[in-house]
């Protein structure tokens, strides 16, 4: 398995007490191969989820830096796999990601716990790094409504139908009626607001930290009772009948979760409802993947159900929890297919390293959802409890 990996530099290793000379990185390749074998992934195997290692040095990098080294070495072209998503699915399912932790991961955990990485001053970073990449880029990857959250595939056969089903599900769960005032915290390009205004007659206000999103949304929602505000969520203080938040809570951070729900509570009129649509972790001590934090979503922090429950105490009654996280696998793979089909239009603008980075991001996340390591929750909350009980619409 290690044949052909050679480097002029050598190191000394022990073999039953005797010293032996071995090519540098050979031992790392052997250790990586042994580790991957536990997830039924082979080095230089011929199955689509097997890793083709192009540089032996990458094995040491992966073992030393864990997920950060795995992602960065892929970006640098040090390894490939036709089905990266399935490779990651197997690695996560075998819990190998928890056995290889970088020293940098400890620093990442400490920063998350000790610093407010999502303060008002820092909150705009993810908008500038991620959401402002280019509206035409996201138009090419997403569905026609520009929904950048998990679709609902229960009865859908394509991405557009899955996203429309998700938006309709949100509106029905909220019991939207004509004339109701809807606040969308983290509105993106306005997919929910446009749908709610057109189909349900709602009057909508959306908050975003991305200037590109706000500009796009204003243009495409012209003539509708829809308003985009380029502002942090903490600044809003006015009455609404309903509040929704789709795919934004992941950027709030554990230090600000209580504040988030306090803002939502003060904005809700009596009898109102809040729908929270968020990716979540299975356990409270989990932390955002270091590679995702560095290259895709800076300062992200996926919540656990326990963290959400504690943050809403004495503010809301949890009426309904709906998990359809498995649908994110299919959504991400649909985005990846559209991204690859459109890539020739963007190759000169972004370059090949970005191409590998973005492809890895979409497929890596798909694999993690396939392994059920991450979830997607829609949680309906009411300030005082719905009289007679809340019923999820069929």
From TrEMBL:
Pfam families, A to Z: CMAS
Superkingdom field: Bacteria
Segments forming a coiled coil: none
Species this chain originates from: Aromatoleum toluvorans
Catalytic activity, EC: 2.1.1.79
Name of the protein in question: Cyclopropane fatty acyl phospholipid synthase
UniProt-listed SUPFAM superfamilies: S-adenosyl-L-methionine-dependent methyltransferases
GO function terms (MF aspect): cyclopropane-fatty-acyl-phospholipid synthase activity
A single BP term in Gene Ontology: methylation
TM ranges: none
Family listed: Belongs to the CFA/CMAS family.
InterPro entries reported in the protein's UniProt record: CFA/CMAS, CMAS, SAM-dependent_MTases_sf
CDD domains: AdoMet_MTases
Presence of keyword Transferase: yes
Keywords for this protein: Lipid metabolism, Methyltransferase, S-adenosyl-L-methionine, Transferase
PANTHER family: CYCLOPROPANE-FATTY-ACYL-PHOSPHOLIPID SYNTHASE
